[in-house]
Amino acid sequence: MVTDKSFIVLAGGKGARLGRYKALETINNESLIQRVVSSLSFFNSDIIVVIGKGQHLPQFTSYPRLRVVTDAYDAKGSLVGIYTGLLTSSSRYNFVVACDMPLLNRALIGYMLELSAGFDVVIPRLGEPVEPLHAVYSKSCLAAIEQLLGQGNYKIDRLLSLVKVRYVEAGEIDRFDPEHLSFFNINTKADLEAARELVKKVPQPDPMSSSGDNNWSKE
Fold first, then answer.
1. Would you tell me the crossing angle of helices 142-150 and 78-88 to the nearest 10 degrees?
2. Burial of 52 by CB count in 10 Å (0-12 exposed, 13-18 middle, 19+ buried)?
3. Strands 121-125 and 93-98, bridge-based pairing
4. pTM of the shown model
5. d(Cα 62, Cα 96) in Å, to the nearest integer?
6. DSSP class of residue 204?
7. Domains, the chain
8. What does the alpha-carbon distance between residue 19 and residue 34 come to, in Å, rounded to a whole number?
9. Residues near 111 by Cβ (< 8 Å), separated by ≥ 6?
10. What digits encode the pLDDT tens for the residues 100-128?
11. DSSP-assigned letter for residue 192
12. DSSP state string for 96-136
């Protein structure tokens, strides 16, 4: 397992489609941000929660290795959140995830981290779409992100054209998460209700196994 790793949770979104701040919406009496942090705390690494300027999170966890930081730039989207997290992190490799993804799969996350050596970004790709808010970013991305922000370009897909990327394809993802529930995110009230039903049916997988495999093989 990669040891030089941290986790960055992006919680700065304003939840425009939902109509309220998503991070504090609840599933089974647990907020979305609590669910994500609880899943990631298994790895016993630093967790950095990035919020927007003017936002506040109540005390929601006793996890000792958690820090809450504020976006380096105001209201500029997820690329700024990633940049802020990478600046804050003391680790080379950082798994970045949005706070509204309540069905994370630890085994898939572990596999992606194992792939990260030698790459700037490790990102799932399901056909054409990629999942930039469920990806590993190296601190080596900072220079390219600074260049983009200096140009007023806040698109993550532009970053991918500037750095060395390892795409995790659907067949690899299927070994761990055949229904691709890891990428289920909440934008609407209907999504929130669907998530509340899904969590009743989806057990958290053992991160040391993957559909019969007993390791995170990179084959």
1. 140
2. buried
3. unpaired
4. 0.90
5. 21
6. P
7. 5-198 (3.90.550.10)
8. 20
9. 168, 172, 175, 176, 210, 216, 218
10. 999 999 999 999 999 999 999 999 999 88
11. H
12. EEETT-----HHHHHHHHHT-TT-SEEEEESSS-B-TTEEE
